[in-house]
Write a structure and sequence with these properties.
Largest sheet: 4 strands, mixed
Distance between the termini: 18 Å
Number of helices: 14
Number of strands: 15
Helix content: 25-40%
Shape: globular
Bound molecules: pyridoxal-5'-phosphate
């Protein structure tokens, strides 16, 4: 074991990635250049969507979607409480209210029963969207959620699930991001995600009108298409602003890096899968107090996080002590996530009942290191160390 600290996640960058970025630095366009379209096209092809829109972060992308769908003050949006803050914040940015749903205590996913229960708490005529989160790289049961949501559009927070598929009986698997039962899907290319551009995001959609709105909002709300001008003019510098937009563009430096990273996605996911399998085998030796999250059978996952559910109470240890002890052994861990509805900001704005699945999941979850640059020996070291810290012998 090397004496270097093992983080819970990090990017894997090779010489081709570095050359791709250097190439942009030598060229004419640092931003709004040709790599943006290239990255968008390659991404859309990868997930089998009609359109892809690159943006400055996953958070920015979620905000573009809520704004682009015209969600605003007085509206409500349902999303699971086990997610990153950004999912909820994208709803708050446009002045709408978040209705937090419960999750399955073993998978952390918002399933059909949890969505049903959240709908019963929301006001039917105010609900404008539902945002399932494909937590840890396992997908939500989109078809079933869509049936329950009815006319209300689904927006996928797919930040964990680039490369995952939903599988159905008697039908071809559907790639996450192909938007087979959603209006749009959002991915992040933050450094710890499946592919890295530092900061960055990508929206996919099959909706020809929505994609135009998203592109306009990404660039200050500026319209350059003469056909859409309110004033007839031939002034070559002329443009119009029809809506309040943002600067949520992704640079060519990042898009070139993203393209290069995307070419390795298959390898990244296969390696994550192998590491996950190794974890599953070695973790099973620790006994009943420690188990990897339950895998769902409607999904071919793209493992983003390696979450174990630990019965800390049963073992008579605190999670804080375990995290500290692992840090001392050079192992980074994280907790994904603190229930968003319990954050002071949201306590004031949403009245959420006790969510038993959320509490069950949150009280036990711990994310162990998982990223494609890791070795099988490092997995074994992590599990051995975890066993030692928990007082369990392998
Ligand atoms: C990373 C992440 C986001 C936000 O993406 P950024 O690119 O960091 O803005 C949103 N939701 C989930 C579930 C994420 O993991």
């Amino acid at each position: 074991m090397s004496d270097k600290f093992l983080p819970y996640s990090r990017q894997v960058i090779d010489e081709n990635d570095i050359a791709a970025v250097a190439n942009v630095l030598r060229g004419d366009w640092l931003t709004t250049g040709p790599y943006v379209k290239d990255f968008e096209e390659a991404f859309a092809n990868t997930v089998e969507a009609r359109h892809a829109v690159a943006c400055s972060s996953g958070t920015a992308g979620l905000h573009l979607i809520t704004a682009g769908l015209g969600i605003g003050p007085g509206d409500q949006v349902i999303l699971p409480s086990i997610t990153f803050l950004a999912t909820a914040n994208a709803v708050s940015y446009v002045g709408a209210q978040v209705v937090f749903s419960d999750v399955d205590g073993e998978t952390g996913l918002m399933g059909p029963p949890q969505l049903q229960e959240a709908l019963s708490r929301a006001e039917a005529n105010r609900i404008k969207a539902v945002i399932p989160v494909h937590l840890n790289g396992q997908c939500s049961k989109m078809e079933d959620l869509q049936k329950i949501a009815g006319d209300v559009p689904l927006i996928e927070d797919a930040c964990h699930a680039l490369g995952a598929c939903e599988i159905f009986s008697g039908k071809k698997p559907a790639k996450i991001g192909s938007c087979y039962s959603s209006r749009a899907a959002m991915f992040s290319t933050h450094a710890v995600k499946a592919i890295a551009t530092g900061e960055g995001g990508m929206i996919t959609t099959n909706d020809n009108r929505l994609v135009e709105t998203l592109r306009t909002l990404r660039n200050h709300g500026i319209v350059r298409d003469k056909e859409r001008f309110r004033i007839k003019t031939n002034e070559p510098w002329y443009y119009e602003m029809h809506e309040l937009g943002f600067n949520y563009r992704l640079t060519d430096l990042q898009c070139a890096l993203g393209l290069s990273q995307l070419s390795k996605l298959k390898w990244f996911i296969e390696k994550r899968e192998k590491l996950q399998q190794r974890y599953a085998i070695t973790l099973s030796k620790l006994g009943k107090y420690v188990k990897p999250i339950q895998t769902v059978d409607h999904c071919t996952p793209a493992w983003h996080l390696l979450v174990v559910l630990i019965d800390f109470d049963g073992l008579g240890v605190t999670r804080a002590d375990v995290v500290q002890a692992l840090t001392t052994k050079g192992i980074g861990t994280q907790v994904h996530y603190i229930p968003v509805h319990s954050q002071p900001y949201y306590l004031k704005r949403s009245s959420t009942p006790f969510l038993s699945g959320v509490e069950l999941y949150y009280s036990r979850c711990l994310s162990l290191p998982l990223w494609p640059g890791m070795s099988m020996e490092q997995v074994d070291y992590v599990v051995l160390s975890l066993g030692e810290v928990l007082g369990l012998n392998i």
